[in-house]
Write a structure and sequence with these properties.
57% helix, 13 helices, 286 residues
Length: 286
Amino acid sequence: MNKLKILEQKAKDIVSKVSNHPQGRYQLRYEFYQKYGNPLIKGKEGLGNSELAFINWEIKRGTLNSMSDSKPGSLWWREVNSHFLYLATLAQLIKESGSTFQELPIPVNFWLDYINSPNEQTWYRAHNSSIISGYYAADALAFNENIYEQYFMNIVLYRVLYAQSMVEGVSFGILGKIFGNPRGCAVSIITHIESFYPSHYPLSKEDIKYVTHNAHNFLGLIEDVFDKIFILPHLDKLYAEASQWNSSPVLKMFIKNNKPIYPITQSELNKNHFNKKIKTKEIPTL
């Protein structure tokens, strides 16, 4: 077995050990950022702040719970997170081994870029290319979720792409400048706002109103402004730009006519290259 295969297996083993322990997943990333977070203040997580806040939200929601738990988690959310952990962990192992390898997965190369030169842009490219890769890897599992959860997956994705746009120099609005700083507390704050990131899994009826932008109250209005005014009108451009920033052409498969269409089965993806013939999903009204 060559050295890369050994490191790949070690990364899989590390992720497998924390698979059924949500807090262990968090700890794995916390320890990574203790080494590579490039904090402005000693003892802080630095560039890992927003990622760790998001994982905390996933833990609170229960999506990372073991499937044998009294409140089972989500196969899809667990797989996306595990895929993400594997890519970042493999990059760390490669860096710490002192070896170099050709033809690594693109997200692994981005994580190596981040470790070697930690800043907002290298972090977003590592993070978001890993998320996109996770979405693609877990596509079939997304169909285990109801249509509202599938719609919410798209919301989570386009919000993190929007945040990246600020770092990449593409201006879609002032909110992105605040939301886009991975060192800041914006993600921690926003994941505690139920209208943006519900804490229930599966989604409650009230959650669904917010997810589908049908909550006619003050919090619903704030969410509408954030999504409908600052992000949704620009989705085609955002996904096209993000596919280049993150060297992830697969992202173009998740958008059609300015509407997100994830998930799509692998057979459909292969048959309808870059979704040229795939119909846009319509979210049922309540």
